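Troubleshooting: if your tokenizer reports a length mismatch, compare your output against this known-good record of 263 residues.
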Amino acid sequence: MADVTVHRDVVFHRPPDRESPLELDVYEPADGGADRPAVVAYHGGAWIEGEKGQLEALERALAERGYVCFDANYRLSGEATFPTPVEDAAAAVRYAEEHAEEYGIDPDRVATTGHSAGAHLAALVAAAGGGFDPADAAVSSTVAAAAPISGVYDLRDRTSETANDIERQFLGGGPDEVPERYERVSPAAHVDESTPPTLVLHGDDDDLLPADGAREYARTLAAAGRRVELGILPGGGHGIVVDPEDWQARGIETVADFLDRRL
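Known-good structure output:
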């Protein structure tokens, strides 16, 4: 098992309208290397709470296998509404690609992953294929694979009666007020011939975000002719890969196996 070096609080994005910059942590094999695969990860917390470090077990496990992992913060919905958090997530991918030589990674072998709200960001950045980058970006946030975990992938069916307060805060209003945001925020709406290989991982006993949403997203990817693997963990709750008591080891191994084959 390889030793892991962690670089904490690395500045990756300086939003012009924000006093403090956004930071990420980098997990990499201690013995260095070149042309290594990389993974950009996003924490969960309903877009309103949480911070980097939530997925440390997953990131350390991947770094032990030779990956360089970038664990990124993003602006939460109490500070900024959509699309700002997604733009932050895309900026983390661009940072990894722009610093490929510094961290010894192959910029063509970068994937996204995340849990819950972070899974949504990972799937959306991947499916959008650079659609949340600024016009003057030096590189694109397109990625080679995605492994969202316990996420939500389609909000287009929300109505003024069914949209919850968390979604309304994240999107800056209800579907009757900002319908275009409910379309654009949905990874399923962006799936096309360029969407990269995707692992959709979910527990079938998730009582917060039912696994039916993961199954439907996998069907959407398959219908578009994209490579997709649906991983449904029997008895797994919402906390797979986060909660050591909830399929964490199996979830981490499933993600690692997928990335080993796709990057």
